Amino acid sequence: MDSLTITRPDDWHLHLRDDAEMADVVGYTGAQFSRAMVMPNLAPPVTTTQSALAYRKRIIDALPEGADFQPLMTLYLTDNTPPEEIVAAKNSGQVYGIKLYPAGVTTNSDAGVTDLDRCTETLEKMAETGLPLQVHGEVTDPDIDIFDREAVFIDRVLAPLHEKLPALKIIFEHVTTTRAVEFVNNASQNIAATITPQHLLYNRNALFNGGLRPHYYCLPILKLESDRQTLVRAATSGASKYFLGTDSAPHSRLVKEKSCGCAGIFSAPAALEMYAEAFDRAGKLDKLEYFASHAGPDFYDLPRNTGTITLYRNAQTLAEDLPFGDQRIVPFRAGETLNWST
Fold it and tell me: Which of 9, 44, 108, 263 would suit a FRET pair with 21, their CA atoms being 20 to 30 Å apart?
């Protein structure tokens, strides 16, 4: 197969940052994806419908001329998010989910939830209105090994929450382990998951291949080869519970390569090509369209896109770095040659 035409896909987990940095990266997603679920972990975070709508306008204003792209907005859940804000978000017609960051779990998560029991009324209102909860599924307990934090989160937080509020739709974002896939597979149809390109393509050895590689460092961190293989089987299975979410998270070269660099992989410039590579390696290119273009909107009760995009088996070499506000940013697999292009 030298080319593959699919329904134009959506990215159900995306970070865009803001201002000049956002203006430099949003066009990459807009060139490949029709819609994207934009994460709210700005500084300060997007905690109200009013601030989400203002952020949406800034994104639209920053798009390249002629871009056909729709940002789908989210709110940042805190210990103090009132149920009334959930009603306002739902009624806005522009907010499509509420993001749970356990406090301190990742970039700009200090304002996140410290105890989910403090959010009970708000979560109940979400279940009532049908507004989904998008979960960064890791505990932050320093006594838990970083490679085990997803599994412990399932046992301590996610499984009890699903049992308590079975009507609440939950997206288990960027799953990374066999344990997570087993949980999603065995849960009700109200539980789904996104999978990133890096977790389909690499295991944790990639972090140390030839030396410490900061641009392969993300949270949740890359896991075992057996976990990667499980994720590939889930993504390529044609199951309705799994769909595309890049978790593309731009950070400047300066903050990625410092002595205490931050987590985040910037995959947006060639995200779809990387997914195609993973599906091609598995001999499952025929399953890419459902994963990338159909399963996500079906779970979110949104219409599937009507346009198409074509992938070609033509080699492309990724840039070593790109503009990012007044800094530079290193894309995932910078300088490497990919087998697919759009």
Answer: 9
Report residue 240 as tokens: 């309705």
**Distance between CA atoms of 241 and 191, rounded to whole angstroms?**
7
Q: What is the predicted pLDDT for the residue at 314?
A: 97
pLDDT tops 90 at residue 324: yes
Is residue 130 a contact partner of residue 154, using CB atoms and an 8 Å limit? Answer: no
Using the CB atoms, write b or e for 306-338: b if 16+ within 10 Å.
eeebebbeeeeebeeebebbeeebbbbbbeeeb
User: Torsions phi, psi of 152, nearest 5?
Assistant: -65, -35
pLDDT given for residue 104 in this prediction: 80
> pTM for this one?
0.97
pLDDT of residue 108 exceeding 80, the answer is: no
Instruction: Provide the annotated active-site residues.
Output: 247
> Rounded to 5 degrees, what angle do the CA atoms 63, 336, 39 make?
35
Q: At what angle do helices 83-92 and 120-129 cross, to 10 degrees?
A: 30
Which of 195, 272, 203 is closest to 233 using CA atoms?
Answer: 195
Lowest mean pLDDT among 42-46, 106-110, 160-164, 190-194: 106-110
How many CB atoms lie under 10 A from the CB of residue 165?
A: 18
Cα distance between residue 152 and residue 141, in whole Å = 10
In the block, which residue shows the tokens 């308590």? 164
> Phi/psi at 199 (nearest 5 deg)?
-75, -20
Give dist(CA 325, CA 19) in Å, integer: 8
Rounded to whole angstroms, what are the CA distances from 169 to 114, 128, 203, 323? 21, 10, 29, 38
Closest CA to 93 of 37, 29, 49: 49
CA angle 15, 25, 173 (to 5 degrees): 20
- Residue 144 has a pLDDT of 97
Sheet holding 170-172, edge to edge: 10-14, 35-38, 70-76, 95-100, 133-135, 170-172, 191-195, 242-244
